[in-house]
Write a structure and sequence with these properties.
Helix content: 40-55%
Strand content: 15-25%
Structural class: alpha+beta
Largest sheet: 5 strands, antiparallel
Number of helices: 10
Strand order of the largest sheet: 5-8-7-6-9
Order of helices and strands: HEHEEEHHHEEEEHHEHHH
Number of strands: 9
Shape: globular
Radius of gyration: 21 Å
Length: 353
């Protein structure tokens, strides 16, 4: 950065009179300790209950609880083995990057987010916690999308808050990777805040038609589950996609001897997502499974997989899946070719066992 540029921290001062005067983050002697404390900070982070409150529904608890974005008593019990699943865990590989790797973890510790008090967590998700899933039930489809969004919102807020804490003491803008990552996280945070208002408004108005839904149903149970925000900037057959692509909300769950992949998006974003989903509709069921086999680890880090699946994978399969979690390997080839379909038979792993 040029010293005369406006400082990215938002102070409106010149960079040379603001963050450039702070110790460089990566040159700091205390960096190893900062890195060691990072995961502890992220794992303990909580925010106030974000339930859309009115005068009749005040929070009964001051503290938010660890809500499961995938139901512990339903989905996670189905796919677990000895109450454990494989779940992406954050690790440090050097001073500049973190990476995700599948680790075997107890189901009480996975898929959690801290956005709701116990009262509102129960109240909000009761229709999907206590009732069997019905693909034609728009309220259930909305709530699965809402919960997928809340998990991603919390994760983003979590990291954004951590960066803001570091920004008070260190220069985060001298390192290109860190500067880019911080800017991206900050932009996402402000986008998520506006999207949260939209979701809360839909819930309060009880108007679930403001989202479009596409449900993929499979006639047998598969032993994995995921939920989160998905972005489909790539195409299935190499055709052009809109440049300003928008996110959608994805949940994959076993339910009632079947398996469902629920995709929803705001109607205002229809033109950004409908072509991709239309292409999926023209594929066979086996082709659709192979497409999602690639997309799911790319779309969300919030995926729980049964040991029944992972224990049958080769070492190469595990390495390839972990690489996809880090957006490596096949995605680089897809970006060159602009087509996912060309690579559906090049995965060594298979989620749909």
């Amino acid at each position: 950065m040029n010293g005369n540029d406006t400082c990215p921290c938002g102070s409106k001062k010149k960079y040379k009179k603001c963050c450039q005067l702070k110790p460089d983050f990566y040159d700091s002697k205390s960096f190893p300790q900062i890195a060691a404390n990072t995961l502890s900070y992220l794992n303990k982070f909580k925010i106030n209950c974000i339930y859309p409150i009115n005068s009749k529904t005040l929070c009964q608890d001051k503290n938010t609880i660890g809500s499961h974005s995938l139901q512990q008593n339903g989905v996670l019990n189905i796919i677990s083995k000895n109450n454990h699943v494989y779940y992406p865990n954050t690790n440090f590989d050097d001073y500049s990057k973190t990476y995700l790797k599948l680790d075997k973890i107890g189901i009480k510790k996975v898929t959690k987010f801290f956005c709701l008090c116990s009262n509102h967590d129960t109240q909000l998700f009761l229709p999907i916690e206590k009732k069997c899933y019905n693909p034609n039930n728009k309220e259930q489809n909305f709530l699965y999308c809402y919960r997928a969004f809340l998990f991603s919102y919390f994760r983003n807020y979590n990291v954004y808050s951590y960066y803001k804490q570091l920004e008070k003491k260190y220069n985060l803008f001298s390192n290109e990777f860190l500067y880019h990552n911080y800017s991206e996280i900050s932009n996402m945070y402000h986008t998520f805040k506006s999207t949260l208002k939209i979701f809360n408004g839909i819930y309060m108005r009880n108007d679930f038609n403001e989202l479009e839904y596409k449900i993929f149903s499979f006639s047998q149970v598969y032993y994995f589950s995921c939920t989160g925000i998905a972005i489909f900037p790539l195409t299935i057959f190499g055709k052009n996609m809109p440049k300003n692509y928008k996110s959608c909300f994805i949940t994959a769950i076993p339910n009632n001897d079947k398996f469902y992949i629920i995709i929803g998006y705001l109607k205002r974003d229809k033109k950004y997502n409908e072509k991709f989903l239309q292409d999926l509709e023209n594929l066979t069921e086996e082709e659709i499974k192979k497409i999602f086999n690639i997309l799911i680890p790319l779309c969300t880090e919030n995926i729980a997989i049964s040991p029944k699946i992972i224990d049958n994978w080769s070492e190469n399969a595990r390495k390839q899946f972990n690489a996809l979690l880090r957006y490596e390997s096949i995605p680089k080839l897809i970006q060159v070719k602009g087509s996912i379909y060309s690579y559906i038979n090049q995965t060594h792993y298979n989620l749909f066992l």
